[in-house]
């Protein structure tokens, strides 16, 4: 694998994916370009052996799969999971605010965002708009303003001398972004702004009905560091995993074994939605891949899910926040995530499989366990394992600044994980 080419394409994917809708659309485009056949959940499916398919739900989640050449009940499925959403600022339904002759938009905090880094950044907006055409039909379209149109200015230290010691953030009053000045009653109408964006795509909206719009940082993803060792970008959690899973499935698309990638939405807010991991999306697709419930149950008992989500790299300034024997290092390989209380779904069996796959690809592997006196996050892994009864392992790539507006990962880690996932998709024997 050419790691340089891999990383440049990863950066292009990150740049094209400012929201879960765009991340899903970009994956769908790439799968279609590779010959995967688009499926519609509202239509009947006639799946064939040795074929490639993909299906999206609500524009923000995707499942891509290959059928292989054998019996699913005896071969099982090689499944990789990730999620398309990231913590962000989401525009409210009645968002327009004016004060002191400035136009702002009210926002909600989506997920567990680290808010301090959102200040003093060049922000744009993107997302999905639902609109009505002249015939009364409801339509959806994606928009991306692309250029920097807003900022959340910090309060100057002269006006808050304790800022470096005790400043806290009120998400209702402190973070509405500033977009422009206003004069008198000349206040922008946000829905009219969205309509103009639709018209720039040669669409003809009669009315903008509603929207799911997020602010995002316009600074492009980059490879950085004195030795070019790091990747810096927004939304590495968890588009890094979406990309590695997609790249692996495309690389292993001719595997004779059934393979599947699922990228759910809404993991950052609990996964309980039609397109979240707690919803029925994956099970309903699997029920259509397998002919009967008995076949599905047999297939799942021969299947493995690798849940891929980022891991906390040990921060040199805060090393005491980690267990001394379980501090993942950036560029030292994928991380097996383990938790005694099932916040991660890893077992000794599934962990062993990942270790064997890494050894086969000559890729180093690490382990993460949170300090016993600290809690840890969770992933789609336990949700999928409990919902399907499939053996699951949680794996991630070490990162700094998780849930910040800009996160940091390793130049080598994503390419190495993709190699391991490709081997997994091509593996004949999984677990006893």
From TrEMBL:
Pfam families, A to Z: Peptidase_M18
EC id: 3.4.11.-
Annotated CDD domains: M18_DAP
Any single GO BP term: proteolysis
Cofactors demanded by this protein: Zn(2+)
Top-level taxon of origin: Bacteria
Keyword Coiled coil recorded: no
Protein name: M18 family aminopeptidase
Organism: Parendozoicomonas haliclonae
The encoding gene: apeB
């Amino acid at each position: 694998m050419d790691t340089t080419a891999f990383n440049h394409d990863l950066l292009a994917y990150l740049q094209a994916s400012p929201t879960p809708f765009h991340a899903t659309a970009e994956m769908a485009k790439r799968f279609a370009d590779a010959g995967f056949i688009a499926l519609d959940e509202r239509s009947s499916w006639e799946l064939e052996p040795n074929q490639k398919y993909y299906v999206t739900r609500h524009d923000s989640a995707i499942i891509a799969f290959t059928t292989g050449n054998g019996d699913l009940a005896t071969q099982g499925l090689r499944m990789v999971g990730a999620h398309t959403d990231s913590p962000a600022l989401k525009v409210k339904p009645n968002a327009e605010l004016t004060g002191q002759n400035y136009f702002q938009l009210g926002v909600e905090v989506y997920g567990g965002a680290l808010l301090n880094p959102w200040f003093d950044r060049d922000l744009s907006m993107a997302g999905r708009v639902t609109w009505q055409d002249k015939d009364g039909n409801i339509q959806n379209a994606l928009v991306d303003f692309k250029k920097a149109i807003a900022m959340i200015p910090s309060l100057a230290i002269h006006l808050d001398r304790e800022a470096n010691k005790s400043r806290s953030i009120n998400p209702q009053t402190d973070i509405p972004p500033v977009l422009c000045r206003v004069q008198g009653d000349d206040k922008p109408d946000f829905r009219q702004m969205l309509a103009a964006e639709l018209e720039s795509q040669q669409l003809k909206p009669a009315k903008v009905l509603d929207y799911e719009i997020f602010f995002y940082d316009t600074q492009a993803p980059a490879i950085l560091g004195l030795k070019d060792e790091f990747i810096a970008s927004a939304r590495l959690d968890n588009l890094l995993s979406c990309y590695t899973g997609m790249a692996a499935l495309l690389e292993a698309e001719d595997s004779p074994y059934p393979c599947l990638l699922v990228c759910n939405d809404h993991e950052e807010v609990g996964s309980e939605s039609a397109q979240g991991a707690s919803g029925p999306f994956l099970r309903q697709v699997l029920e259509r891949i397998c002919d009967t419930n008995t076949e599905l149950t047999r297939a799942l008992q021969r299947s493995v899910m690798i849940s891929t989500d980022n891991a906390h790299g040990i921060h040199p300034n805060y090393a005491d926040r980690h267990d001394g024997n379980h501090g993942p290092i950036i560029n030292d390989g994928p991380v097996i995530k383990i938790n005694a209380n099932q916040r991660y779904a890893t077992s000794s069996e599934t962990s062993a499989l990942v270790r064997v796959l890494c050894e086969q690809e000559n890729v180093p592997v690490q382990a993460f366990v949170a300090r016993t006196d600290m809690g840890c996050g969770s992933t789609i892994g336990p949700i999928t394992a409990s919902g399907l009864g499939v053996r699951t392992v949680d794996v991630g790539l070490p990162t700094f600044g998780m849930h910040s507006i800009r996160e940091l990962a390793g130049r080598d880690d994503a390419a190495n994980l993709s190699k391991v996932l490709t081997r997994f998709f091509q593996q004949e024997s999984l677990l006893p």
